[in-house]
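Q: Predict the bound structure with guanosine-5'-triphosphate.
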Amino acid sequence: MENIKIIVVGETEVGKTCIINQYINQNFDFNHLPTIAMDKSKKEIEIEKTNLNLEIWDTAGQEQYRATNKIFMKGAKIALLVYDITNEESFEQINYWHETVKDMNKENIIFCLVGNKNDLYEKRVISEEKGKKFAQEKKMLFFESSAMDYESIETIFKGACQEYLNLVKEEEKKMNSMKEEERKKIEEERKTEKNIIVGEDEVGGNDVGGNKVGREKSGCVC
Ligand SMILES: Nc1nc2c(ncn2[C@@H]2O[C@H](COP(=O)(O)OP(=O)(O)OP(=O)(O)O)[C@@H](O)[C@H]2O)c(=O)[nH]1
Ligand SMILES: [Mg+2]
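A: Predicted complex:
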């Protein structure tokens, strides 16, 4: 079973803990209990007959945890960058979260931009188009969600994992074609080597009685 580390980052109160709670326990909490440093949850899912063991890391959005947060970001395969569609500041800060996660992960990582609290449509200040456009520019997947609605949350995790599996397949393909190229190169090199030996025999074989003779013909068993 493949383990996938997913980190959930963003400003405080955007709904990170509620999103995870909905995904794991299928319930919603109206209270805000700030996450202290980090919390981990697990969930097993199956996508295209592949079993995935999701390890979901809920991080603290509060300013005082910024430095420690960075350590938890290492080794993530998927990052959910969450903002609150009713809070402009939380959207503006997405750049900070994006850059920080990138700094901590040099390998390929799937980024998902998540505009949460879309049930509060009367208070919306960030349009869906604005979120989408930003995500496109930064080559991220884009979702809007409400942590009250399980389906919208499941769509995020499934979409992200599907994208991750596609990336793994692409990388495998690249590796295989590299191996194939390497194999062909070695075969080519062997052919050339053979030709050189045959050539050597023709040119540099024992010259008996004025005839150029190859090693075999001369009875040499070397
Ligand atoms: N209406 C609505 N409220 C939400 C939603 N998601 C979260 N909330 C509320 O927003 C507040 C903050 O939610 P949390 O999940 O604790 O926020 P957080 O991002 O984990 O905050 P930190 O742990 O401090 O970083 C809580 O009062 C939640 O009930 C949502 O989708 N819709
Ligand atoms: Mg939290």
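A: The longest strand covers residues 38-47.
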